[in-house]
Every structure is written in C-alpha cells, then in structure tokens.
Records
---
Amino acid sequence: MSDSTATRANVYDVRPKTEVPAESPLAWSYHTSGRPSVSQKSRVVLRERAMAGHMILRGGAIVLDEAVRGVLGFGLPARPNTLSLSDDGARSIQWLSPDEWLVIVPGGEEFTLERQLREALGDAHYAIVNVSGGQTLLELEGDKARELLMKSTPYDVHPDAFPVGKGVTTVFAKANLILRRPTETRWELVLRRSFADYCYRWLLDAGAEYAIGVEK
Amino acid sequence: MFHIYCPYCEELREEEEFHPKGEAHIVRPKDPEACTDEEWGDYLFFRDNPRGIHHELWVHAVGCRKFFNVTRNTVTYEILETYKIGERPTVTAEHLAGGDKQGNVQVASGGQQTVGASGAAVASVKGERA
Ligand SMILES: [Zn+2]
C-alpha cells in the first residue's frame, strides 16, 4: 500500500448547506405505528435524539485518546464497556471493542470533528467512519424503564451490574443494539437503521403495560 | 442461562452473544506454494475431534466482535478457560493427565476426571483472571 492511500481519505460533508430532505430511521415507524402520547400514567418515556452525529473511531487507544482530548476536551473511556461524557453530557465516547470506539455528538458537528481529528491524528494508523446515517439514538426514562429492558435483553441491567457510565453491545429482543446508561435515570439505545422499526415496535409493545409515551 | 467470559470485554456474557468457529491454533503454512496437496488439504479441511479437551476459536459476535480462544471439554461441555488470540492455553489435555501422553490414545478422557480439580481454570471461567 502506498503512503498516499494509507494516510489520505476523502472526507465528505454529508450535511450539505442546500436543503436535502433527511429523515430519521424511525420516520416511517412514526408514520405507520404512531407515537403514543405521554400521559400522567406513563411510567416509561421514549425520546429519539434523531440526526445526531455518530462516528466510529478505530486505532490504538493511546494515539486516539490524545487526539480526542485535544479536539473534544475529554478522553476515551479507560475501561471496556464504559462511556466517557463531556461536562455538559452532550458528547460521548463509548468503548465498543479493544480498538474501536463510538463517538456521538450533536448533529451537524460531525463533519468539523472528523476533519479536526484527521488533522490531529496525522500519519497515525487509524480509521474514522461517519455512521450517522446508519443508526439512531433512543432515550428511555421513567421508573419502569429498567423493567422494560429486563423484558427485552438477557444482559443484567441491575444497578450493581450496570452502573452509570456503562455501555454494552448486546442482544435485544433477538436483534442487537448498543445499550448505555449515561445518567442515573436515563438509558440510551443505539439502534441500527435496519433494526430500528422492529425495535421501536417491540418497545411500544413491551412498554404498553407501563403506558409508554413517545415524546416528540 | 449459560455465561461465557469474554477476555476482551472482561466480563461474563450470555451464550447467545457468541458463535463457535471451530478448532483453534491452526497455523497457516508459511509457504503455501511449497505444500503438497495433502499438507494443504490438511490445513484447509481436516480438524481434530477429540473426546475431552479441545481448544476452540470463538467469536463474541454480538458484543466486541473479537475472536478469542476457548478450552472446552467436549464430553461435559465445560468451558475451562478463555484466552486472547496470540496467547497459549494454560489447560491442556497433557496438563490434565499429569503430563502423561498415553501412546497415541487421546488423553482427554483421562483428563476429564481431573477437570473439576483445576482451580486456575475455574477461576478464569468465573472471570477472576488477572
Ligand atoms: Zn467481547
């Protein structure tokens, strides 16, 4: 492999300034399955953080850690299956495997971030892939949120086994997703586009007994 | 509920997240061109099928998606240890049979009886390895 192919990547802004219609992977599901409204009785509330910037970082932990610290102001999570967050909680980096991390930032920031990271990483051996179009993020809150998860995944979601700051890729309703717990009360589900509709309908079904509501 | 310790995730995970991928520690011939058909065929297709201790390649398919090794007893299905790619097993048929290789008879069935006695192996399955 020549140096030029190893160190140069074409970087595209997938959010051009011109108006191009873009929809979350769940747009069709809202249309066909609806969005039960949040009521007094809702003990689980679902909220999509649509169109966020999702990026996969691959490479060595030390070199990537230095780069994200410089650009984002916080480093990679130190342990497997954990999450690191910016002070305001708006940006996160999650361990996915020994050489792979998922960065989620507010939508629109990912293009600039990717360029800054590439600049910071220079000739290092790494890969950055913008996967924003391939997945979406759901937030789950409410006093029955954990019970809903217990019906859906074999992973132990008891606070002792799943403390705040943890995040795992695991089986969920026979599909798979990324499950994470950024705060005491909030769970996050990162769904792949191809599983999004199925998982959404599963959540509505499993959440029916808790009068699940979907915030707009 | 059957749990397997992933050496990369450093925790026990549900069996559903894993897939077995056959025999481990199969070394690709350094110079395939110099292999006889028999040697190459052996490398590609022929696998051991021992009764007892077997070192296997598994993948944490719905998880970190890394391949790793498992030492498993094919008689009892007991997983004796899991270890990263590039590492060597600490539990082997020879080790469990007290280092006695009984001619060309597989020692695995002898080793099987001492399986429960291997503290180190049990510790690694429970995720207590350093
Ligand atoms: Zn794993």
---
Amino acid sequence: MKEELFVSGRNIPNIDPYLHIWHWQIPIYLFLGGLAAGILFLAGVYTILGKEKEMPATVKWAPFLVPFALIIGLFMLFLDLKHKMYFWQLYTTIRLESPMGWGAWVLMIMTPISIIWSASYIREVFPNWDWKFKFLYTFEAWVIRNRWYIAWPMAIYAVILGIYTGILLSAFNARPLWNTTILGPLFLVSGMSTGAACIILMSKSHEERRIISRLDLLFIVVELFFITHMIMGFLAGSEVQINAANLFLGGQFTVPFFVFVILLGLIFPAILEVLELIGYKMPIIIPAVFILFGGLIFRFIMVEAGQITRYLY
Amino acid sequence: MRYAMAIDTRKCVGCSDCVVACQTENNVPIGFCRDWVSETVDGTYPNVSIELRSERCNHCDNSPCVRCCPTGASHFEDGGIVLVTHNKCIGCGACIESCPYEARYSHPDGYVDKCTFCIHRVRKGEKPACVSVCPTSCMYFGDLEDPNSEIVNVLKNRKFKALAPEAGTKPQIFYLV
Ligand code: SF4
Ligand code: SF4
C-alpha cells in the first residue's frame, strides 16, 4: 500500500487536490473554434467545387455565424486569463512552440477572413445594404471576383484551426488524457460535424440538407472510430494512460461520457440521419441540436477529465 | 553553469521549515506555497517505510512550462533557473497545466508564481532560503558543472532519483535515497 500526503499542508486553490485551472471558458473556446472551422471548411470546399447555387446555406448563410463564434471564442480566452490587463502581450510575441500562442494568432487571422467572406454576401441578404464608401464597394467587387481564390486559404486555415483546438490540449505531456496525437484529428472531425449541424439547421433546401447530412454521418463514424482508437491507445499505454482511459471506463466520467457524448451526441443523431436518408420524414432539427450539444459536452468532459490525470511519483 | 539541488530524504524530518522560510523570504501569499513537504508511506504496519521529500519547481532542463508560454513570460535565466516575468504573464494557465509536478500556482494578483531558486539571493552568492534554514542540513544547492561543488560530490557518492523522469522534463532536483 502506498499513501502520500503533504506534511507541510498544501491546499492551493484550483490546484489541490485536483488541478482545475481551466474552467468553462476553455471548453466553450474550443467548441466555438471547432464550429467555425467546420463551417468555413465546408463553405470553402463547396465554393471551390463551384456549388454556390446548390448550397446557399453552406457557402453563404452559415458563414455569417463564424465571425460571431470567433469573436466570442476570443472573448472566452480573454475571460480565462487571470492577468487580463496584460492581454496585449499575447500579440507582441510569436512563439511557435506555444499552442496557446499560435491559437491566438490563427484566430486573429481567421476572424478577418471570415468577416470579409460574410461581408461579400451581405448585399444578397440585405439588398438595401449601403457600404457608404466607394472603396468598400471596390473591395467588395474584388472579393466577389476572387472568392474562388479566397476559398482555398480559408479551407486550409479552417483545417488548421480545427486541428488546433485538439492540439491545444494534446501538447500537454503532463496531462496523460490529453497527451495523444489523435486529439487533433478527433477535435477536427468533431468540429466539422458541429459545423455541418449548424448548416443543416440553417438550410432551407432539402437537397442541401441531404448532402450535408450524408457528410455529417461520415464525420460521426470517423469520430466514433477516433474515440475508440484513442481509448485503445490509452489502454495499451503506460499506467498513467490506463488510469486516464479508466476515467471513461468505470471511473467518474463514464456516465456523462457514454450517455451525453457517445449515445445522445453521436449514435442517436446518426440513427436519425440514416432514417432520414432512407426516406423517413424526420424533423432535421433534432439530430442537429443533439450533435451540437454532444460536441459541447465532449469538450467540457475532455477539459475537466484531463486536468485530473497526472503523473504518479 | 547549471544550478541544481540535492535533497536527502534520509535526513529530512518533515519539519517544514523550508516551506515557512520560503514564504517569508518571498512574500508568498497566505494559503499558497512555492515548496511543500510530502510524505510517502509504503507498506502496512509493522513493515512500513516513509520517505519525506521537500518538493518545489524542478527547474527542468527540458521544461514544458517555458515551451508552452505564449508570451515568453516563463523563461530560462542563467544557470537554467526557470523564472516568470510577472508583467509579461497574462495568466492563461497553460504553464500550470503543463507542469507534471504541480509546482506553479496562480498568484492572487493574477500572474503565475513559483519557486525561483531564490535567484535574488543566489546572485549575491547566498544559498536559497530553504537550503540555508534547514535544521538537518539535508539540502545541497550548487552548480552541477563545477566539479568541486558540494552537490556534485554528494551526487557522486549517494544513490539518487528524480521525480517522474518519464515525463521527459529532465528535472534538476535530485532526491538522495
Ligand atoms: S517543475 Fe514544473 S514549473 Fe518547474 S521547470 Fe519543471 S515544468 Fe516548469
Ligand atoms: S500563465 Fe503566464 S507564465 Fe504561464 S504560460 Fe501563461 S503567460 Fe506564460
């Protein structure tokens, strides 16, 4: 039997007995980042494929959410900071080794791109919109002409942003639950899936919803595969990683993880989407809402559970 | 120059003088600490063994906290001492997450704080407060690159270990066992 205690008495707020430095802000930041990545990626891809007409919600309407998601996301990051008045220091340095740092930069690049993208469609939504200045009209015309070229970097950056939301966690060797490279791709597909859910919610065209639903189904299957892969990887790992996996396999996060993330967030919406695809009439809003909910809870669980896992010595 | 510390777990009596000395020397706010003493009890009575360890930041050679800091607030000083520049720190908490030893904490003023190896004393040629106050003299502080230093000597002659070396951080606090 091995027992450890602090003779000198140590009870530091948010650190003892369990680390809890990151609260609700970080999971929301990651969720919004993933959602934005998903929408922009699909918007970019369908623009590159020249499908603006067939996929209006994907290419035009859903991207209107992105600037808001990114700005709220950055605001969440700001709320997480404990030394807020020094926030600007984040943008005086470029430190490629720091995921926190390059995430802040990726968001800084993504936000203007997403604003420009949406702005170029604003007169299609509000025909009476007036840009006031002539140069803005010139700029708008330029963006509209070059959408196809903007779509490329946008889609690529979206993938980087999506992977980043996982890397922010996986870069921490000290937290065994996070320290797996699969987290990057896993958060990316999860983000794609939440982005697709948003598009489904906003789309009015049956055909568009069908296409995105089918894609979403693919994302869900890949996500389930990655999650299985992640847990198997942990179980084949060192003691601290086995302990990490056990948080989900009988430990304190088992019920929320399997009920909210796996069942309600992935399997249930997947079944509804399959039923819809084979012809049953389904209120499409239900799977979409469950996917968004599952994605959010997934990030909360990963952030909370990861902080509990640690090295033993 | 590579500063390091060797701590004799067989001499430590767990009096926590090092903790109090640090709190006084460095004005550590009440309820927080930069060093602490842990007791590991192994076995069941009557076959028990106890290990007492005065722990603190390991001033790692390959420190994840320096790597993950977005602003460069966490950095290396001469001799490998890992330090936080308070007015560069934004309090993002990344370094706290990255430390396998839970050696950092968020100071009530917002920035992140931790052991500095008493760099202000070391620069004057003094020993860190914890080392100088230990009643059993169980701590050795010095330069690993100086072959005549006390710490090199003691590490040559005793068995020692570091905490969680598998974390890959190359910790520079050695526990004599
Ligand atoms: S012990 Fe923790 S805080 Fe200290 S250098 Fe190593 S990783 Fe950084
Ligand atoms: S909390 Fe401060 S020292 Fe730590 S990583 Fe963030 S900016 Fe750097």
---
Amino acid sequence: MYILKNAWKSISRSKGRNILIGIIVVVIALSSCIALCIRRAADRAREESLASLQITAQISVDRQAMMENARDQAGDSGGHDQMREAMQGADELSLEELQTYAQSEYAEDFYYTISSSMNAGGDLEAIDTSGSSSSTSSGEETTESSQDVPELPEGMEGGMGGGRQQPPGGMGTEGDFTVTGYSAYEAMTGFMDGDSQLTDGSVFEADTSEMVCIINEELAVLNGINVGDSITLTNPNDEEETYALEVIGLYTTTSTQTFQGGPMMGFSTATDPANQIYMSYNTLKSIVDQSEANAETETDSETGMELTTALRSQTSGTYVFSDVESYEAFQEDVRDMGLSEEYTVSSSDLNAYEQSLVPLENLSTFSTYFFLVVLAIGGIILVVFNIFNIRERKYEVGVLTAIGMKKGKVAIQFILELFMVTFIALIIGTAAGAVSSAPIANQLLSAQVTSQQSQVQQQMENFGGRGGQGGAPQDGGAPDGGEGVPEEPEGGFGGQMASYISDINASIDLTVVVELIGIGVLLTLVSSCAAVVFILRYEPLKILANRS
Amino acid sequence: MSILKLENLGYSYDRQKTMVLEGLNYEFEKGTVYAIVGKSGAGKTTLLSLLSGLTTATTGKILFEDKDLSKIDRYRFRSRDVGVVFQSFNLLPHMTALENVVLSMDISGKGQRNKKEAAMELLIKVGLTEEKANRRVLKLSGGEQQRVAIARALSYHPDIILADEPTGNLDMGTQDEIIGIFKRLASEEDKCVIIVTHSPVVAESADAVLELAPLRSPSKSAS
Ligand SMILES: Nc1ncnc2c1ncn2[C@@H]1O[C@H](COP(=O)(O)OP(=O)(O)O)[C@@H](O)[C@H]1O
Ligand SMILES: [Mg+2]
C-alpha cells in the first residue's frame, strides 16, 4: 500500500513537527494512563470489597425521626415533655417482631443476641478497669484500653444516669460484666472477624440452654479459673439472685471496644473487653426469664413509672444479606410488612464500607476531572496544531490530487501519519504510565486519606469529641441516650475513625490499554478532522493556481 | 475515433462573466503531436487544465474516447490516462526526483514492476544524472525540475501527454532532445501528445497546430 509508504516517508521528512506532536501525545497518554489506572483501581477496589462484604443490618428506633415528629406535634408550646414522652414511648422491637421481618425473602439469614449486665458473685472478681492491676496477662491492647479509660466509680449505684445503655426509664444498676447471649456463631462478630479467639476449652452449642459460658482468659487468670470450673453471677438489682455457670472455654481478644449492642457511652468495668461473658441466647434468655419471674415490682409514686428488680436485658437482631441490592430491597420490604416509620433499618457494614471508600472516591473523581481536562486541552492543542499543519501542506494536497490521487486517499494518508505518530507516542506514554501509575496512585491516595482523616478529626473536635472513642452528641441530644444506638460505631461524628482503603493496585491492565488506544484513535480522528475537511473542500486547480 | 474531442467548449473562471475560452471545436488523435500556440493570456493553460480533467467545461464538453469527461472519474483519468507537465511543474519539493516519479507510478495503480529502476531509467533518459535523481527537487534548478516533471508525466505510460511550455527552461540542445522524445512517443507508441508552446521551432515540428486567440467577454464587461 503506497499510502502507508507515503505516510511513513512524510513523517520522517518532517521530524520536528512530528516530535512535537509526539511529545504532546506522550504527555496526554501518560497522564491519561495514570488517571485511568486510578479510576480502574478504584472501581476494582469498590467491587472487590463490596463482593467480599457481608452486609448485615439492624432495625432500631429512629430517634431523629421521632424527635422531629414530636416537635411537629408539640408545636411551639412546651414540647419538651411531649418529646420526652415520645422518646420513651418507643421500644425496641421484640424478638418476635424482629423474627417476622426476618421472613422477608431478601434477608438471607437472621441471628440475634441478648445482652445484660450482671455482677460478680461468690469469689469472682471483675477486672478492675480503673486500676492498673489487671495487666497480668494476655492482650496488650486490653491493657492499653484500660489506661485510656477515664476513672469512673465502679458499679455506679442506681438512678437514671447509672448505665446509659439501660432501657428507657431504666433504673437498676449496671453490673460488673456485660453478658451476651448469641443465637448463632455468626452473631459472634468478634470471633467471626478474628478479633477474638478461643484459647482453651470449647465454645457453647449455639442452641444450648445449659448453664455454660466462655470468659476472657484475663479474667480467668485473675480469678484462677480453669475450664470446667463454675462461676457465680448475680443480679445487680438484687444481690440475692444468683446464677451458677460452668466455664467451658476461655478466649482472648485484641478488641479495644465492646461489640455492637454494647454500650457506647460512658466507661465502666462492664465495657472492658476482659469483662465480657458469652453464652448462648437460650441460656441468657432463661436467666432473664427466671429473673423476671422472681422480680419485685413497685410503682414510683412521683413519676408513675414501674420499677422492677428484674435483670435488665436488651435484644437485638441482625439480618444478613447476600448483597447490597437485597439489603435495599429489604428496606422497602419491611415497610410493606408493616414496620412503622419510627424504626429505621441501617447497616453499619455498609456505612463503614462507604466510609472506607471516601478517599478513594475523591481520588477517583479528581483523576476523572484531571483526565478530562488533559484530554480537552491536549485535544485542542492537537486540533490547532493540525490546522496550521494542513495549511502548510496545502500545496502538497493540490499536487497529489492533481496527479490523480483521490481526496479520500490523501485524507487517509494524513490521518495515518498522525496516527503513527500518536501510536508511537501512546506506546511510550503508556509504558511510562505503567511504570509510574502504581506508586503515584498510592502516593496520591495516602495524601487523600491523610486529608480525609484530618477533616474528620476537625469535625470531631468541632463537636467537642476528642477523636478516637469519645462520645459526642450524635444522638440528637436525647436526654437519656437510649440503649446505645447499636449501629455506626465508626461512622458519624462520635465514632471511631473509619478505616480507609489506603492501598490500591493501580497497575495497568488490559482495560486501561484498550481505553488508551481508544483515546489515541479519538484524538487522531478529532485532530485530523480539520485536515479532512480541508482536503475534501478544496479543488486542486485552485490550490495550484493560487500558488503560481 | 479521436481520443479527445472538444465540442463547442467554453470556459469561465467567474461564472460566465468573462469567458476565457468560447465555442472551441477540435479533435485530437492518437499518434500525433499537437502544438497549441497563442499569446500570453489566450487561455492555453486553461485549455490544458480542461483536457487534463482538473476542471470541467463551463459550456460545451470534452469527450475522452467518446465519454463526457465531466461525467467520468477524473481522478482515475488523471492518474492513468493523461500525463501532464505543468507549467509550474507541481513537483513535491521535499521528495527526491526519483520519489516524485515513483509516487506517480504508485498513484496510477498500474502495478508496474521495478518502479524505481524504471523511474531512474526515465530520469536519465530526460537528461538527469543518477546523483540528481536522488536529490530533493527543491535543490534542483528550474531546467532540472522541468525534466523531472516530464519524466513523471511519462512514467506510467498514459495515452495522452499534455505539456505546458515544457521546453521553456531548457537550452536548445535539451529542447531538441525533449521534442525528439515526444515525437517518438507519438510515432512509435501511438500517444497523443499536446504541447503548449510559444516557440516557433517547437510549433513547426508538430504535426498540427491549434492557435488560440484571446477572447473578449461577450457581455463586454471587461474594459
Ligand atoms: N485561476 C484563475 N482565476 C481567474 N482567472 C484566471 C485564472 N487562471 C487564469 N485566469 C485568466 O484566464 C485567462 C487565460 O489564462 P491562461 O489560461 O493562464 O493563459 P495562457 O496560459 O495562455 O497564458 C487570463 O486572462 C487569466 O488572467
Ligand atoms: Mg500558461
């Protein structure tokens, strides 16, 4: 094909011009390559982490909505009491209700936990959070956490303010231990995630009702408990009420915070990871039922509220979904099934997931814009360049068409010339991009993560939080904070820092190469448009006549 | 059958306000050398542009082998059937003489073998040295460029050769040589050779002479 030969010869005849075009294209290709690699890596990271994400959700009272509701109803006049009433009126859903929603076709699995607060009985002694005496064994993290915890009086006595995780209207005392009963192993997220590990003995059967439990190794060491020994727990409201449990396993944990459902505000011995006692749902449920049967109730003459000595307990259910779509469908489905607006369905995994993507998304958006700007500017430069170029080559077009070369072929030759230069430059730019995109992407990402972190930090400070674990008034300032909203341990203002995706594999892949080739073709075609229009419009005779 | 036939041919550069050519009737045959003569501005170059299919008749028509030239593929016609030696050569200055000739052979699509050798042979035949044949056209003198233009016109063996003052920049000796080549092409290869010239010597050596007289515009718009 002589056109190809002509194009090649023509390129080598005008080296300066083509080197200049080449440099422009190398710059475009290099920056496009990096930008595309980042986008691609962000997409991949999003997909991969979403694919590996098990989505769980909870249904809880929507305090925000209720507050607004109450405010609306109350109007301007002294709505405070009404508001308070509204707050107290809403109870968390019962297990039966939670189970009804589990029937939704979108929920893949459902498990639930019951938690309560109990005191040490007999010889048993809880790990003292306020002192430094506990750092005898295992988990350095645990030690650290104990030091972080501000000093609070142990086992605060009675009153509204006692345990913030207590149910509304709750009197009763917070115990030394947080006791949790699980319906399934899946519910034991600490163990599922690998934060916690069984070190001795065995775990309880998920559906057992036997009086067996597992305790923290640290607690066991402190009390000289071995697997097979028995411990005694008491009702903090009624020290006479005791329950004997056999310790069938010991565990360690690296977690510095209590699991979901646990208290979020305030610190006490019960929040220490070492003071967590685990058993099956049925076991704890039977203890709570027994306690209720034994309880003495009286009615407070002032407030008209019922006071009971029964063990406080709190049930929460977790729905498991196979993917985000199911989760979203579930959100609508439960409304159809009759879930009132006072309750909200939320997923901490999804929140954390979205949170973790923020810097990456920022980077991806930034690189998209950068890419478009580079492409636009590069495109304009090339178009302008080609317009000048074609004017210079007007005579050549005239001669070629005069000696019988069809205009279309002349146009193809010119496009081909540009394409060859573009292509060679593209290869160079892509090669440079392939080498540099991965390190540059990670550097840019870490800068993003840092800026995101300091931004969140700033927000937390603005809200009076102290970063890390402090409790900020995320709850909309509800007077008695409620059962420690189970979700959003890391989102929001008061939560812990989100863990951001801070490392991506922005190495070049086939998709990026194909996209770059597409860009090359596009640039060539767009920038040679001027040439083509010119060639197709002019008559050879006019070009030649104008010259002489 | 004549190879080219002018039928009442008229031409205007400005939409019939000023006619450069008008009412021309003529027939060109193969195996003949024609000389087109006339004063400067008589329309000789214009006629050659029409005959080479670079432009089309304003009035009347040109028949190439009985087909209306304005209705056939004139790119193909230019690249294969007619070889033109332009008055201003119209060579590509950044290419070598040889490349210019080979390019024409490529464009003709006639699939000749050993194009380079054939082109070199032709360039030497019109009086260029091998060294000059490999030189970029822009570094050749006017006379040398004219030879390259002639070689290019002959390179793909067209049936018609049009030459616009092809001997203008040549010395007498070379002029004779070139005329000799043209005459041989007509007599030995049955080509139709049409030469625009104002040299009486060249005109005399032609088999037929077509004289163009300058025209006044019929609409008398010209002063
Ligand atoms: N491209 C053009 N546009 C307008 N007028 C032209 C053009 N070329 C030639 N002419 C005019 O046409 C007439 C014939 O020109 P031309 O064919 O070049 O004459 P010759 O070759 O006989 O000297 C002249 O009057 C000239 O001015
Ligand atoms: Mg002329």
